[in-house]
Amino acid sequence: MSVDPSVRVLLADGQVGLVRPLGPADTDAVLRLHTGLGERDRYFRFFGPMPSTVDQLSAKVARAPGDRHAGVGCFLDGMLAGVAHFERIGTTSEAEIALAVDGEQRSHGIATLLLEHLAAAARAHGIDRFVAEVLAENAKVIRVFSDLGLPYEIDHAGPEWPVTIWLDGDDHYPDAFAARDRIAEAASLAHLLRPASVVVIGVGRRPGSAGHAVLANLVDSGFPGAVEVVHPVAGEILGVRCAPSVRALSRTPELAVICLPAEAAADAMEECGARGVAAAVVISSGLTGTPAGARIREAVRRYGMRLVGPNCLGVLSTDPSCPLDATFLARRPRAGNIGIATQSGGVGIALAEALSGLGLGISALVSTGDKYDVSGNDLLLWWASDRRTEIVVLYLESFGNPRKFGRLAALLARTRPVLAVRTGGGGTARHAAASHTAAAATPVVTRDALYAQAGIIAVDTVAELVDVIAGVSWQPLPHGRRVAVLSNAGGAGVLAADACEREGLRMADLSPDSVERLRELLPAEAAVHNPVDTTASVRPEKFGQALDIVLSDAGVDAVVVATVPTAVGDPGTVLAGVVTGVAKTVLAVRPGQRERVAPLHADGSVVTACYDDPATAALVLARQAEYAAWLARPQNGTTVLPEIDAAEVLKFAAARVSEREGWLSPAAATDLLRLAGIPFVPTSYALDETAAMRVAEGLPGPFAVKADAEGLLHKSAGGGVLLGVQGASGARDAYRLLLARFGPALRGVTIQPMADRGRELFVGLRSDPVFGPLVVFGLGGVDTDLVADRAARLAPLTGADADLVLDGLRSAEALWASGIDRAAVRELLVRVSRLATLVPELAELDLNPVAARASGCVVLDVRVRLARRTPEDPYLRKLSG
User: Which residues cross the membrane (predicted)?
Assistant: First the structure.
């Protein structure tokens, strides 16, 4: 059963519950739930009075789950608040469902949560349809079915309405579950970022401790709610009343901030849970991997709390209705529109300082630390509902649920920029011994694919992060990648142009009219083609006119302006006035300025960012252009293909993986491609030389003989491919040669007619248990790993994703100019993606080489590895921990 035992879930009001499979030990709890229903709820559940056999029904609901039955329950504070169960109908793929929810908890979305988890369990057992009967007057349950987001049908004839729900889902389901997630998360995280009251535990009476700093910041922030401190002996600290214990507090605080040593922090967390505290921030370090850390995790589960940390900087919000600074930052940041989620407290401190220095402000800062509970995903949902936050910044060292992260980030990035620092690039694990795909699908490649598909603006350092934040804060996004460079110092202009081209930007071709106007305006020695060099002798007002001309050129999407002061004048003094109100993107460069990036002002307002180096401006502009291009992409762009026989593919994979995990035989791998509709060169398999000779007799021309040998990864490089073989005697000799070469490791040979190899490409797939399947494309053949010209995206691929992969190679322009069939290769990528999402057991796939020709493409060699995987519903709502 795919439903995890005791997964933490968020109810619609932000309450934390537990959902888990039911078993015989829950029979009494199920019975209590049913007998506790009100009269009208009993009528709706049983279409009449409570049956005398309700005890038998309860035992049936709570029996051990299997492929014919499963029940799930939602528990609040240890009490069963709702149940849902299915019973398979005969030998069909259809199951009847029923549910019951405690009347006092009905408005919290429990029924919907239970149906989501029940559907996940049913899909894992091959059930694709739920059926039920509901009384016509039971509007609440009918609303649950309609709001679920899955395709459904209700027969409105008579007093009892039959309902059918299809579990395959459609385009509406992700939107429906995302909306529920967003509502629940906003209610839940309000305990952390908009609490009515706060207690700080672990405050020293004198400055110098984290707890004292947290309390001082909290008091100074103007937090409007009640504040108390837990201290064993003090009566008050910083004017705040103290209590000797959590139990002795004058009220139950909504938020607790814990700044104690590890063991004492665990004690405090348990006391807070028992008192009913809704959320906690654990500043304390040294907990992860210790019994004290385990106790904190258990307290979070047992008491339904939300937790930030441990080992964190704290949380901060500048919401004017509830300002809150529960951090130990040295200085309070400015209020603003930038939301920050960071695993590293040090990065949080550096960002807060840097942004304040630029005059930029923060809407909220959450330091997640060791992420026992609240993660980047939670905060993406929070910011989706927070209109004060116009830019989101992430520093993530790990992903708990990257597939959910990708969906949430993509939804958020449609409305505001989302920026992230790439981390974890130094220790990439290469598995070259496994396959070409494994060699390419490193953690870094997978992470970058996730960021690219989600529309995240990714950078490599915190300094670059600040650079890009300044650019997106003060300038509009460019409409394209065509850039003009204008400078009064030729060297700075050349450096800027080189940097732009390195970043993948295009140097714009200025129109003849623009060139002529520049020639009339500037000295004869000026360079009037892009990059434009006005020369150092041009006075500021003429430089401003030149910038006007370049900005008015329809072929220019953005301008990088590099200026230096001279004895004639300083062109930098006119930039702000020219740039003000301009719709195009303009970034300034001031070589030698003290700050790496600084605001450029006009009439007291910031009009653009000014950088100390042309390379920095080019990097910022390139990231802005990439984001603008992502926004302009169609949001689906799926490719319509002939249907893959899903049932046959699943049956094939299940049968093979049940025999043994690992690499399929060449014959079996070929069968899988055939079922998926992937074109493969005609192939025969021979176990011995007699069979090889029999196959050869039916071939009119030369053929290739390839070894199927234990441990042979790269057939060509390993001496396992013989080309140009002819006739039965040639097949016999080839088999004997390979047998002599590989000995007992030789399991057989594949025989294929010699084909026009066209342009050799590589298509691969590697499925990561956490990130899911990654589709890799590149140049193929023997040297594919050596050349390493590849692009990758996470499945499922839309048609737009496939196009980005095809154009993502360094050699893409030359490759597609060579005349090969792009549409056929694109279809191959989408088919591989669909196969990966259909078959979770597909761990690795190598199609190398793929012969691409002017018309069509065909796979010449394939390797497939299957592994047992428990399919996970990508839309199942659950919290970490």
Answer: none
Cα separation, 302 vs 314, in Å, equals 23
- Which residues, 6 or more positions from 387, have their beta carbon under 8 angstroms from its beta carbon? none
**pLDDT digit string (tens) for 703-756?**
999 999 988 877 877 899 999 999 999 999 999 999 999 999 999 999 999 988
How far apart are alpha carbons 686 and 667 in whole angstroms? 10
Same domain assignment for residues 741 and 827? no
Please, which residues have CB within 8 angstroms of residue 790's CB and are 6 or more apart in sequence? 440, 445, 762, 776, 777, 778, 779, 809
* Helices 376-384 and 402-413: angle between axes, nearest 10 degrees: 30
Q: DSSP letter at 744? A: G
Residue in 682, 846, 823 with CA at minimum distance from that of residue 755: 682
Alpha helices in 523-613 (DSSP H): 540-552, 572-579
283 lies in the same domain as 383: yes
Same domain, residue pair 670 and 775: yes
Cα gap 13→11, rounded to integer Å: 5
Structural domain span for residue 714: 682-754
Torsion, Cα 104 108 112 115, to 10 degrees, reads: -50
Q: pLDDT (tens digit, 9 = 90+) per residue, 448-469?
A: 999 999 999 999 999 999 999 9
Closest to 306 (Cα-Cα) out of 558, 62, 9: 9
- Enumerate residues 6+ apart whose C-beta is below 8 A from 703: 696, 725, 726, 731, 751, 752, 753, 754
**492, part of any domain:** yes
The count of residues in the chain is 881
User: Dihedral through CA 639, CA 644, CA 647, CA 653, nearest 10?
Assistant: -100
DSSP secondary structure of 650-686? HHHHHHHHHH-SEEPPHHHHHHHHHHHT--B---EEE
Spatial separation of the C-alpha atoms in residues 760 and 784, rounded to whole Å: 9
Nearest to residue 429, comparing CAs of 442, 438, 448, 441? 442
CA distance 840 to 836: 7
175 part of a folded domain: no
Q: pLDDT band at 438, cuts 50/70/90?
A: low
In a domain, 62, yes or no: yes
Query: Percentages helix, strand, coil for the chain, rounded to the nearest 5?
Result: 40, 25, 35
